[in-house]
Amino acid sequence: MPIKYISHAKNPVEGQAILNNITRPQRVLRYRENNQVFDRIQRGMPFYEVETQEIIGEPSDNLVLRGECLSACAYLKTQNIQVDLVYIDPPFASGADYAKKVYIRKHPKLAEKIAAAEQTMDSEELRSFEEKMYGDMWQKEDYLNWMYENLMAIKSVMSDTASIYVHLDWHIGHYVKILMDEVFGEGNFINEIIWCYSRPSINSQKNFTKLHDTIFWYSADRDNFIANMNDVRIEYSEKTKERNKYGSGGSKYSGESTERITHEDGKIPEDYWNIPMVVGNANEVVGYSTQKPEALLQRIIKASSNENMIIADFFGGSGVTAKVAHDLGRRFIHCDVGINSIQTVRDRLKEAGASFQMLEIQDGVSLFRNPQQTMDKLATLIPSLQRGVEGIGAFWFGSIVDSKLGTMPVYVPNLLNSQEKVLDIPQMNQILNQELPDLDIDVKKVIVYYIDIDGEQALKKFIHNNNNTNIEVELKDLKNLLHDVVIEDIVKVKCSEVEDGFEVEIMEFISDRLLQKIETFNQKSSTKTPIVMSDDGLELIEMIALDCENDSGVWQSSTEIKIDKLGFVMKDGVKTKTFWDGKVFSEKQVKRLKVRNISGDETVMMLEAVQ
Ligand SMILES: C[S@@+](CC[C@H](N)C(=O)[O-])C[C@H]1O[C@@H](n2cnc3c(N)ncnc32)[C@H](O)[C@@H]1O
Hints:
By secondary structure, the chain is an alpha/beta fold. S-adenosylmethionine binds near residues 292, 314, 338 and 370.
């Protein structure tokens, strides 16, 4: 349960969009269940306990926060932290599930031999499978309600001169524009930027190729916001430069654009930006499927912030915003729900030499890598759960067939939608008055899983007084199931004293989660060569870190190695051309060992003191 709720404080600006056929007593658009959002905004942002996981580099107020945007904003507000620029690239409602390619590493003891045999092998051919990173499937109404609450939370931590850039596309962008008019004020709209990128066009389609995203730029206060347009000037086009040579009296390009050179440092860019996507083996590629280019963020951050200001990205993904902010001498806050994002940005920033604190919001939900994978896992943990049963609508997660009670629909809160985390009266009202009467089949009982309940007694009383059907509603705590979702990996190590220090050798690594995944992959892809694992499982390790300072609490990496997908070792953030040999050397006696597997699960263990 949240410790408390933090008020958003700043009210939305009302009365902006005039849409006659839409009523708007509290909000511009009255979508289904929008009153729930209003209630939640009234209640405030959920504030949970926040735990420091790791401190990297020098003491610093840069933050990498694992948790949801809403709770991150509640935390910032309690700490009186205001941000000077926000860029967000939230899930787009694109109906896609994003996946990350996971590469099985070369076995340390065989690495040299394999490398010799595979010199010509393309990296994509390495043995790999996919992990779902986050789901992106929403009903429009749910998405907009969710987005509204997030925008309100973000607004409440923006400084008076701050700007916000919201990156979306044709799927939902223009609906969100209306929400932004309401939350930030139509008058504070600064521009709509079109980011154009390229990709080979598809000849067979009956459409123009879709090759742009939309970025809405709003300021907190239109009369007082940062706009360093001189810092983002770009070169004039070759045609303009050529024409300029001929003076204003015409040129071989006469009749075309009339642009003139008026500033020696170049021109202020138009609001359509041609910036290439990050692809292939570009230096900045970190393997995060929705990664945006650094050049895009460079322009935004330079234009809308000054050195030392705080730049925040609450849907940070690969960490592009934090990385560019660091490069440009700004401070940063990166927030994301997914463990893959947090690890990717940690390693990316460490390599860039940044100092930061890693915090985790203890909301009890993102237990298994990310909400999407937790949802998938839950479906296998609810005994006898069947999905997609006829007569049971999409609201229900699935159903259980019982010999006495017949079919029992099961509700599980959507972990991707923070609004559903706390089971409260508005949510129960929907279940009782909309979903139960809508059931197409005869049902005696439904099961409603919850993570937290807002006022259990009051909720039970509400069910008693408002259930107009004969269907029994059973409440069950989802946290009991969530505990079963996480099974730790097993690491067997040998620690010995050697010349000048200590050596930790990994003897065996067993990850049930990964082994199951590989088995499923092998069964499904009968056409591909199956993945065959060694007995000691060392090829499933991505990173090993040693803490020589603390035996509990905040992690401090005294030394660490990361094995890249080709098997090369990166030691303490520095790339090398050597393969991992299964060992890690430390000058000091090691207190704790952390092993991260190739899917991002981490196991921490104490090391016995070496005699
Ligand atoms: C489109 S990606 C961002 C990509 C990022 N701009 C980049 O360049 O890598 C959206 C991210 O939002 C995260 N996310 C989804 N729901 C979230 C929430 N409620 N709070 C914080 N992060 C969330 C996902 O895990 C995902 O990493």
